[in-house]
Design a protein that fits this description.
The complex is a heterodimer of chains A (116) and B (111). With 116 residues, chain A is mainly β. Helix content of chain A is 0%, strand content 50%. The radius of gyration of chain B is 13 Å and the shape is globular. Classes of the chains: A mainly beta (116), B mainly beta (111).
Amino acid sequence: AQKITQTQPGMFVQEKEAVTLDCTYDTSDPSYGLFWYKQPSSGEMIFLIYQGSYDQQNATEGRYSLNFQKARKSANLVISASQLGDSAMYFCAMREGFQAGTALIFGKGTTLSVSS
Amino acid sequence: DGGITQSPKYLFRKEGQNVTLSCEQNLNHDAMYWYRQDPGQGLRLIYYSQIVNDFQKGDIAEGYSVSREKKESFPLTVTSAQKNPTAFYLCASSMPSGEAFFGQGTRLTVV
């Protein structure tokens, strides 16, 4: 079974609009972390935002916020006021447990296209 | 500057050849990882290492080998047993529960 599911292969949005990228996860470990990364066409992976399973508040980083719904096991990324430079592939990832060195498990990604 | 350096950026392999991808980090991270990315796909874990001289197989380890003789270095060898090696390879490192930092990637093509 997939541990991270991103159901939107592609999303299209106009500049200055907000967009939500969906992510659901599956784990039985009560301790886990959720991450979002951006991958432009250059291929580099850019860390955007993190949410721990015990965090009471939704994480925010500038124009990025994470809509964390623990009971639904969802961790959607919200980008406010989209910019042309936001066009990229976005990956949701999870690390189970907080012990040393457990690997991040990635979803298949969502391609976001922002138009003017 | 602290970071992760992967080399080479582009690599071409002939059928039956072994090739080694380099990954070096100066972030003093204990954990290092190798991922494979195919076009339009997510990242799949090949191998990871929590400490020096120790590593574990990921989901797609067949046809690959690694070593971790130094904390800073985690090279990946793509062996001739890997039948479909053409892909984008990403190396990463992290602290125990923090985000992973990635290198710029190596694009491997079989010719």
